[in-house]
Amino acid sequence: MAARRGPYFCGIDAAMDVVSGKWKSLILWELAEHGVRRFAQLRRGLPGVSEKMLVQQLRELEEDGLVHREVFPEVPPRVEYALTGHGVSLNEALAALGVWGAERIERIGAEKVVYAS
Amino acid sequence: MAARRGPYFCGIDAAMDVVSGKWKSLILWELAEHGVRRFAQLRRGLPGVSEKMLVQQLRELEEDGLVHREVFPEVPPRVEYALTGHGVSLNEALAALGVWGAERIERIGAEKVVYAS
DNA sequence: CAGCATCCTCAGGGATACTG
DNA sequence: CAGTATCCCTGAGGATGCTG
Known about the structure:
homodimer; Arc Repressor Mutant, subunit A; 5 helices; 3 strands; 12% strand; DNA-binding
């Protein structure tokens, strides 16, 4: 389900609401890094997502106005995803978290995934 | 359960891991705003949390090194919670998200909660 | 006051198979 | 290629009651 429409306690609450979902922040990140991406490209960039989850999370992000979805009526079908303006600004806000998280990974000596199963 | 110890895809992943949990970011926020807080004070500041959840989330934040818990051996018991250094820096990273979220609340015309049952 | 112990619900998410 | 459609299961989180 996409983000609720409030009521919210504060901005953090609203932002976390929109970004909660196992893959959403990662999808945003991926789109910010690469710009426009096709479905299969995203799938490859997020090792471990199932098709179902990827579609679902993308649709919710679209519904919340963070991602733009463009369908090209071709055979074979092509669908491209990109961030909207709000998606871009959310990503900039997430960047600070990314830095903090990277430091935490160092600190606790966690591994980074290259390819999960 | 507290945050896993990786492996992580990236910093965002690690940060979201630590902050995911329905009340964690709100607890962090509350502690940043007020400094040291007692259990009951936090409870009052987070309308809608159950005792169980508040304890649980606090313990996980403690386990992850973001919150410091101090018990005073008195009767009646007193327990104070405060952010650690890492908690403070995480909160600073969350601030950007808070701003974005506040703008989103404006944009979609969502309500803000004052008191949820 | 600041918890701990239980029980229970429900929806987020995984696995698998099929389609325009 | 880019999805639908189903079934299923785990576990986060809620409700309630008890305690040092």
